[in-house]
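Hey, resending since the last one bounced:
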Amino acid sequence: MLITGGAGFVGRAVVARVAAAGAGRIIVPRRRECDLTRAEDVRALFARERPELVIHLAARVGGIGANQRSPGTFFYENAMMGLLTMEEARCAGVEKFVNVGTICSYPKFTPVPFAEARLWDGYPEETNAPYGLAKKMLIVQGQAYRQEFDFHAANLLLVNCYGPGDNFDPETSHVIPALIRKCCEAIAAGAPEVTLWGSGSATREFIYVDDAAEAIVLAAERYDGIDPVNVGANFEISIRDLATRIAHATGFTGGFLWDTSRPDGQPRRRLDCSAAAARFGFTARTSLDEGLARTVAWYRAHAGGAAGS
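The structure tokens again:
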């Protein structure tokens, strides 16, 4: 089994789950040895390892700021990693390919909850459109390869993940780890308030990393359809309400200042996850409050002096 991105945040959880289930050889390529944006590296990887199953998780990811700073990089690297990996998997006779895509591929004004049938109804939200479109092209590739080559590619559309081991870098992190870090650092500094991007009115859906890993492994085991399938946790929360939850989880008692000169991103996000339950038996189990508590505890145990008290 080849798991691209297996050393990343979600990838580590997937590797742990398949290892615990008694999977055989698990191959996790590292970029210093195999650059998935280089055709010769990807071709050599498949010639050397000959996997029967591929779970493609490798991606260049980040929050709104990172996407705005590097849209070309986000488009190119995500497109090339996916296109090359799927093509070489096909050429090597891989039996099944599971591509883990993103909710960012949906149109900006998709009706809530997002249903898979609405995926092609419009252009993605501008701040992360290059990333979302690059990942969306892999759905087209997988469907085209199934039609022409009988290549068994399945596609998942994953909401933002969070949990222990997440990326807390202030330049590239997503909203939950960014808020946790800001609140903990404010506590440590005795700061009375924290400044956050946007108006706080945008809504999001989040899935705990272990739940996401369970969904990916279940899809690898049980799903072999041509249609992309949403993977989420069946809830919607505003960024303002999320900030309040994280303040409670961290013990931050100060206030929030909303910098409305910064973008909100997509106005609303929530997935219709009924297909995941029907097609491979997945339903998320970890509540947001439980997941936040575990994530805050991990950050404080690993962040040293920045963790607050």
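The chain has two domains: 2-162+204-231, 175-203+237-267+287-307.

Sorry for the duplicate.
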